[in-house]
Amino acid sequence: MGAPRALRLLGCALLILAMRNAFATIIVGAGSSLNVADNNVDLGCSDLTVAGSLMASAANLTSIANLDLSGGSSFAAGASRISLGGNFANAGNFDPGASRVAIVDACGNGTSEMSGATNFYDFVVATVSGKQILFPVAAAQSVAHSLTLQGAAGHLLDVRSSVAGQRGALALAEGAAQTIAYVHARDNNASIAHIAPGLPTQFNSVDGGNLVNWFLDVSGGTVPAPMLGAGRWVLLAAMLFVAAYSLFRRNRKFS
């Protein structure tokens, strides 16, 4: 039996073991490949580590502690739903397809850290306990379809950079959907679409400073001029008419 075939069989065996025995760590070794297809896989707060090739069509991968894609690895997520409570580390190739990646309150992790540049289709960070999410400084997290950053009253989602005082990058595509609520954001650059455009209070959120393209973008953006309703336009026109007429009368008096 050749080594590559043996590695593939080993990968399949690991998957079967994980699915028969709940809460098993899944490791896809270098040179091996694993297809979870549309299976439901609960890792029970164990890690998902990929050094080879992981594929899915519409799987549900839940209760992941940390997801780690090492250099040279690949993960084609298809339309899967992926949920983790810890860190998302990407030094390989994550193909998001139409997948949803959610970082939630799970596995006892109060802080989750992103590392590496990753393209997401749907990206969710949600907490009811006041989780912290750290974005890397030198690698943008890009979101193509929808972004959800959701905390709770009294327990804000804490959006931070991995290096305090330097901005992490979160690139939301133009036209993508966004749901932002109960967030305390600081040290972040929304490098494409404006995130949560408006006053922080409109989103029950807090502007922690050093933000670009967030809220009203007080760090250098332009605040839109207030719009006048129809009644105010009529009043403004009347005031201009009176001023012009007064000026006309004054000029005639001294001519």
| Proportion of helical residues | 10-25%
Structural class: alpha/beta
Number of helices: 2
Radius of gyration: 26 Å
Uncertain regions spanning at least 5 consecutive residues? 15-22, 218-235
Hey, roughly how much beta strand do the residues contain?
Answer: 35-45%
Query: What is the domain total for the residues?
Result: 2
Q: Return the average pLDDT rounded to an integer.
A: 86
Dominant shape: elongated
Question: Cα distance, first to last residue?
Answer: 109 Å
Q: Would you count the extended β strands for me?
A: 21
Q: Biggest sheet: strands, sense, closure?
A: 17 strands, parallel
- Give the assembly state of these chains: single chain
Reading the helices and strands in chain order gives HEEEEEEEEEEEEEEEEEEEEEH
Describe the fold and architecture.
There is one protein chain. This protein is an alpha/beta fold and 255 residues long. The chain has two domains: 3-228; 229-255. It has helices at 3-20, 230-253, and strands at residues 26-28, 33-35, 40-50, 53-55, 60-69, 74-76, 81-84, 88-90, 93-95, 100-103, 111-115, 118-126, 132-135, 141-150, 157-161, 168-172, 177-181, 183-185, 188-189, 206-207, 211-212. The strands form two sheets. The protein has a 17-stranded parallel β-sheet that branches. Strands 2-4-6-9 form a four-stranded parallel β-sheet. It is elongated. The protein starts with a helix and ends with a helix.
